[in-house]
Amino acid sequence: MTIRSLTVALFATAIVLFASVANAAPRPAPAPLPDREHMPQTVEADDIQGHWELVSISFNGQTEHAPAGAMAFAFDADGTIRMYFQGQLADQGVYQADGPNLAITLNSDKVTEQSTYRVENGTLTITREIQPGQYVIISLSAAEATHRD
Fold first, then answer.
1. How far apart are CA 147 and CA 8, in angstroms?
2. Sign of dihedral through CA atoms 61, 118, 41, 114?
3. Is the dihedral of CA 30, 47, 41, 129 positive or negative?
4. Burial category of 70 from C-beta neighbours within 10 Å (exposed 0-12, middle 13-18, buried 19 and up)
5. Max CA pair span of the chain
6. Per-residue pLDDT reduced to its tens digit, 28-44
């Protein structure tokens, strides 16, 4: 799996969940991740709002650092998420934050990805279990909007 496909998969899943909620379709509660040591005790849903630039992606203990400006995300108050590659809009969709749980569905694949997140010291960390016991951890830093819609 490439970093882009892992990131797209992570954010694609969340958008489907939000779409089902918006259409008043019942949805199951997200399953909690077993690794709770990295979870915050409390999370405010509006903590995720804003512009975030990709810093790194970790998988199976290996971390890949992203070049500056390679990828960014915008989480809006209305539940919209936009994903940018090198400043250009690459995809968009919807997200829902509920406590430490994050659901994202991107328009490109209409699959909702369930994750957990925390915001601490200007860093957004998103963790997703992709297989039992295997996690993708995405680190993003707070950023100014430098992309083009």
1. 18
2. negative
3. positive
4. middle
5. 40
6. 443 443 343 443 333 45
Q: Where are the alpha helices (DSSP H) in 23-94?
A: none
Over range 10-31, report the average pLDDT.
Answer: 36
∠ CA 97-6-38, nearest 5°, is 50
Q: Pick the closest to residue 107 from 134, 76, 83 (CA basis).
A: 83
Token representation of residue 79: 């539940």
pTM summary value: 0.68
Give the separation between CA 97 and CA 113, rounded to whole angstroms: 12
In the numeric block, which tokens belong to residue 111?
A: 């699959």
Token reading at 135:
């996690």
Amino acid at 46: D
The encoded tokens of residue 39 equal 């979870």
